[in-house]
Amino acid sequence: MREALKTIKRKTWKEQWNIAVAEVGYEKFLAGGIDNVKLNWLFKERKDGFCADPFIIEDGNRTFVFFEEFDYESEKGVISCSEITKVNSKIIASKPVTILEEPHHLSYPFVFQKDSEWFMVPESSAIEEIIVYRAIDFPYHWEKRKVLIEHLPALDSTIIEQNGLMWLFCTRIDKGENSALCAYYSDSLFGKWKPHLQNPIKTDLSAARPAGKMFVLNEKLYRPSQNSIGTYGKSITLNKITKLTSDAFEEIKIGEIKPQTLSSYKQGIHTFNFSRKYVVIDGKRFSGLKKYLDPVYSRYFKKQ
Q1: Sign of dihedral through CA atoms 57, 60, 63, 66?
Q2: DSSP state for residue 9 in the 8-state scheme
Q3: What is the spatial distance between Cα 259 and Cα 289, in angstroms, rounded to a whole number?
Q4: Where are the alpha helices (DSSP H) in 110-153?
Q5: Cα 270 vs. chain centroid, distance in angstroms?
Q6: What is the DSSP letter of 126?
Q7: Which helix (H) or strand (E) holds 20?
Q8: pLDDT score of 303 more than 60
Q9: Spatial distance between the Cα atoms of 115 and 105, rounded to a whole number of angstroms
Q10: Angle between helices 290-300 and 2-12 (to 10 degrees)
Q11: Concatenated DSSP letters for 47-101?
Q12: Is the pLDDT at 292 greater than 50, yes or no?
């Protein structure tokens, strides 16, 4: 049964992700009710792949979305970028430009600015390295700057500076890719990264794997995470971190962002990011037999 289901999955089991932008304050999403938010889906449905894991950056008077562009045939992702503009009341995206491609799979392009320079840490768990790239001509040209951590099959690395330290949150394929949250810290971005003494600091299929940048609101630190109970990327759980030291970690769930009820991509959402003017998310729908086989496959192979 197991091998038969795997064969069927490989041939007919497709998840279609797309990216949407909304011109709205991110507080609307924190409240959990996004059914009345106008979402602008950026790309047409593709038969050869999909776009997901969006990060949005406003640089001067221009706005860019960085994301994973996945190809079904090669089963590999590259990092792409589109500039978004507003035409009348509609937000549109330019044709995606591949800005980073490696022999291995790439996804989740965590883009951030530090000391007036732009950096990106994409997911590269296939080679068990966390690598930081530096923009040499933002946003389209990047160079490898340094391997931050070696021998670590990390997923969706997310970095924030807090209490005088750099913190990196991720899940690990070898510990539970969707359920075991791990943390690392360093005195500087390019310094020595140390594992948290309690790793994994949290085990929870509904609120472990990162789902976008962390942020501070009213002097409180918040962390979006993926809820994969029932299906991968079912919804986003919002957490408030109440304790973060080298030997202690605590957070509480404060809310959930669910897909829009009437959206054509209502089967999942697993990335939430925002800029000054915009919020960007992704959405999932099933194609082919996926919608019928998902409950059966999940019963036999519950994702960790």
Answers
A1: negative
A2: H
A3: 21
A4: none
A5: 6
A6: G
A7: strand 13-22
A8: no
A9: 29
A10: 150
A11: SSEEEEEEEEEEETTEEEEEEEEEETTTTEEEEEEEEEEEETTEEEEPPPEEEE-
A12: no
Residue identified by tokens 């791990």 is: 182
Residue 1 is predicted with a pLDDT of 63
Over pLDDT 70: what percentage of the chain?
A: 90
Taking residues 202-224, report their average pLDDT: 97
* Residue 289, pLDDT score: 59
E strands in 163-266: 165-172, 180-186, 194-195, 202-203, 215-217, 220-227, 235-245, 248-257
Residue 196 pLDDT: 98
Could you tell me whether strands 194-195 and 215-217 are parallel, antiparallel, or unpaired per DSSP bridges? unpaired
Q: What is the mean pLDDT of residues 195-215?
A: 98
DSSP per residue over 156-175, as a string? EEEEEEETTEEEEEEEEHHH
The kind and range of the H/E element at 285 are strand 279-288
- Whether the predicted pLDDT of 190 surpasses 50: yes
Architecture per CATH, domain 2-300, reads as: 5 Propeller (2.115)
Identify the residue whose tokens are 């990047």: 142
Whether pTM exceeds 0.85: yes
CA distance 66 to 111: 8
Q: What pLDDT digit, counting tens, does each position of 262-289 carry?
A: 999 999 999 999 999 999 999 999 986 5
Cα 32 to Cα 207: distance, rounded to the nearest angstrom: 15
The domain limits of the chain are 2-300
Residues 106-127: b if buried by 16+ CB within 10 A, e if exposed: bbbbbbbeeeeebbbbbbbbee
CA distance 74 to 72: 6
Mean pLDDT for all residues in the chain: 92
